[in-house]
Amino acid sequence: MSATVPTMPGALPFIGHGLHLLRDPLPLMRKANTLAPVVRLKGPGPDVYLVTDPDLLHRMLVTDTRDYAKGRITDGAAPQFGPSLLMDIHFDGLTLFEAHRRHRRALQPAFHPRRTAAQVPQVRELTQTHCRHWQAGQTLRLDQDLARLAYDVTARTFCAATDSMAGALAALTASSTTGVYWRVALPRLGRLSGVPGTGSFKRAVARLRAAVTGAIEQHRADPRDRGDVLSALLSARYHDTGEAMSDEQIVNEITFYMFAAVHGIADVLPHVFLELSRHPDAEERLHAELDTVLSGRPVQAEDLPRLHYTRRLLTEVMRLHPTVWLLARRTLRTVRLGTTDFPAGTEIAYGAYAAHHHPGIHHDPLRFDPDRWLPERTRALHKVAQLTFGTGPRKCIGDQLATTHMLTALATITQHWRLHTPPGHRHRPTPRLFLRPGTLPALITQRTPMRTTSAAPAQS
Ligand code: HEM
């Protein structure tokens, strides 16, 4: 079957492309786009087939999704976090597809838009408090500083929890991306105890699980809806049996959600400020929109749908710097992709980074252009043009929540502050499990929002 699939150049004996994937995978992803609809990556373990063609991606993720399991993600992450929605979930008598649908249906109400919108004041206040320690003229490590904000926002909106939970989340994030990535990139090596991040990662997961267990006890002792995700999961029920989830399952879910959620404010927002530093025209338009829509007052949930340019900017930053840049599937039966049949058990990968940089999907893909997301222009785009949160039945369940948190924090910060990377700063992102911004210094200056009389939606 694989005779028709070209192999990515540069494979090394024994480890194949493993070292490239650990060291500098982003150029490899762009190169794959130029080679073929499906490209073989060699590994120390089984070969992985990276799908780059947009129509094949759509088939794999949307129309033929029943033919695939999560594969490596489950192998790499489930033993550490416990099985949860992101991974392969099994219920007796149901196919993998049906089991996922049943589980997702029970969890979905926790992410209802009304619940998410109700978190805006909390996220705004946490951001305002966080920024109080900033001083004009100061240079910050933006990557570290915004990560601290992300831990606070995540701990409070997911578990109504305070500092100790945020501390556990910080420890997990610091130790995790390398350790988990090694397990996913090189599953066999990942089982060895000397793999970077392994010991501290396991301790950090245990610490966060203990903190979530403590939060469950507190919620049970005082059972009221705190507006957080945990309150909603405690009242979640399976539609067919009316059963609640076990506490262990809730801990699995919440631990993994928080692990994922941090990366919005912690990783996407630094990339936003990087792009604003590079594109003063975009910064000017952002400020103009915020001043027109907010007129100097703090952002509210009702403002978010009117921040059209801010949303486009965020979408474009996540196109160029997609946090979840590479994902995997495993075929459950023989599937045909293009002209090749792949037998059951084949490892398949897809990447938001590759798709977002594919010249057949995006015109001039390296160019930063928030207006490519204007409604009249998106209509012409391929269905897989936006894979930041995946697509199809396995699309991110937290996409709206993450977007709401990011927009709220971004609007609150940029109303009053400019954060510019110093001239000559060389951006070195770290693509591990998540695409992180790397070291990102930023000089802070203050700005005073213009107070306009009109509160009409901005036409930017
Ligand atoms: C900027 C932040 C985030 C990004 C970029 C992101 C990205 C993604 C992507 C690309 C997928 C698709 C996975 C696949 O195709 O295999 C996904 C799935 C998922 N995400 Fe997120 N995510 C983010 C935030 C969150 C948050 C806040 C949560 C909290 C609940 C979350 C929970 C999940 C879950 C549970 C899934 C699996 C959904 C399913 O299989 O039904 N993510 N995410």
CATH C-level: Mainly Alpha
Spell out the helices and strands N to C: HHEEHEHHHHEHHHHHHHHEEEEHHHEEEE
Give the uncertain stretches in residue-range form.
Answer: 456-460
The largest sheet, given as strand count, sense and whether it forms a barrel, is:
5 strands, mixed
Binding site for heme: 396
Protein name: Cytochrome P450
Pfam families: p450
Keywords: Heme, Iron, Metal-binding, Monooxygenase, Oxidoreductase
Write up this protein.
Helices cover 50% and strands 9% of the residues. It has 18 helices and twelve strands. By secondary structure, it is an alpha+beta fold. The chain has a single domain (2-446), classed as Orthogonal Bundle (Cytochrome p450), CATH 1.10.630. It is globular, with a radius of gyration of 22 Å. Helix 4 packs antiparallel against helix 9 (163-185). The protein has helices at 18-23, 25-35, 54-63, 72-81, 96-107, 113-117, 120-131, 142-159, 163-185, 187-190, 198-221, 229-234, 247-278, 280-294, 308-320, 352-356, 375-378, 399-416, and strands at 38-41, 48-51, 68-69, 139-141, 327-331, 335-337, 340-342, 347-350, 417-420, 430-431, 435-436, 441-446. The structure holds protoporphyrin IX containing FE (HEM). Protoporphyrin IX containing FE (HEM) binds at residues 85-86, 104, 257, 260-261, 263-264, 268, 323-324, 327, 388-390, 394, 396-398, 401-402.
